[in-house]
């Protein structure tokens, strides 16, 4: 930095060069008498800098400069003290929790069957795979966490549970379903699944009325365990996530039921799925995580 300065006031006060102004806004140098009337902390003594007055950053008043390197060090200290501090407390904990959740979910999708064609990895939900340059999804590998795939964009249409494993073609995710779709267009993670801590309550009538039955285990046949109807008009998820099926043996339409959606309350069969056509539910199981 150049040391050539132009004299400009009392006591040989100096005007900082333009390059110094670009680093931090300076006021015009003042006399000692003027500085005595200013608020702030003072430092003085023998040496190249005779008197120094500081007020609220970023204002800095300098007298009798001869070594600009010292001034630069002061500028760095003031700038560092005014920087925004990293998040603490609840904000930091929230960011950490979000990062940990992202690591718990990972899915890879392919545009063609048998893991061929265009591919893409995801750790978060995808509302429309066509916005990523895909025409459709025809094979899937789930590496972490359970997911639910949908027939249409925006999480619409028939649902298909996707637990850890390989799905080389649509038969793999459709399973024994009487309704099959050859591709998926949107998907999302199921965050509340907890296989070891899951509880569901079935009700005989809509809006949680009539006879009820609580369960904490998988049931390939509700009628075999004592439910005397093929229909379940309303369901309350007390904990975890479940997949209900239209027919015994985990066959037919799939309904993904989660504690953290609808507050776990499904008052009628229309809330089971955007494409639910009946309240017929004859088997139910916990979602694996």
UniProtKB/TrEMBL annotation:
Function: Crystallins are the dominant structural components of the vertebrate eye lens.
Organism superkingdom: Eukaryota
Any one of the GO BP annotations: lens development in camera-type eye
Organism: Betta splendens
The Beta/gamma crystallin 'Greek key' domain, residue ranges: 105-144, 145-191, 198-239, 240-288
Family (UniProt): Belongs to the beta/gamma-crystallin family.
Description of how the protein assembles with itself and partners: Homo/heterodimer, or complexes of higher-order. The structure of beta-crystallin oligomers seems to be stabilized through interactions between the N-terminal arms.
Protein name, entry field: Beta-crystallin A2
A single MF term (Gene Ontology): structural constituent of eye lens
């Amino acid at each position: 930095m150049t040391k050539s300065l132009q004299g400009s006031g009392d006591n040989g006060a100096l005007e900082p060069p333009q390059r110094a102004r670009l680093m931090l806004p300076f006021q015009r140098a003042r006399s000692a008498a003027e500085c005595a009337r200013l608020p702030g902390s003072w430092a003085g003594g023998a040496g190249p800098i005779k008197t120094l007055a500081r007020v609220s950053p970023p204002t800095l008043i300098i007298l009798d400069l001869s070594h600009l390197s010292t001034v630069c060090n002061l500028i760095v200290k003031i700038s560092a003290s005014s920087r925004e501090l990293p998040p603490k407390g609840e904000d930091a904990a929230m960011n950490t929790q979000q990062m940990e959740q992202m690591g718990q979910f990972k899915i890879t999708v392919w545009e063609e069957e048998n893991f061929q064609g265009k591919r893409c990895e995801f750790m978060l939900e995808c509302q429309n795979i066509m916005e990523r340059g895909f025409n459709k999804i025809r094979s899937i590998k789930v590496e972490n966490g359970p997911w639910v795939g949908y027939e249409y964009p925006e999480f619409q249409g028939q649902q298909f549970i996707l637990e850890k494993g390989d799905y080389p073609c649509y038969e793999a995710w459709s399973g024994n379903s009487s309704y099959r779709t050859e591709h998926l267009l949107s998907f999302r993670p199921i965050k509340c699944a907890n296989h070891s801590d899951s509880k569901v309550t079935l009700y005989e009538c809509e809006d949680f009325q009539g006879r009820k039955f609580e369960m904490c285990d998988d049931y390939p046949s509700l009628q075999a365990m004592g439910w005397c109807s093929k229909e379940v008009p309303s369901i309350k998820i007390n904990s975890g996530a479940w997949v209900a099926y239209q027919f015994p043996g985990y066959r037919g339409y799939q309904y993904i039921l989660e504690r953290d959606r609808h507050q776990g309350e499904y008052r009628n069969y229309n809330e089971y799925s955007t494409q639910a056509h009946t309240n017929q539910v004859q088997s139910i199981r916990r979602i694996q995580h």
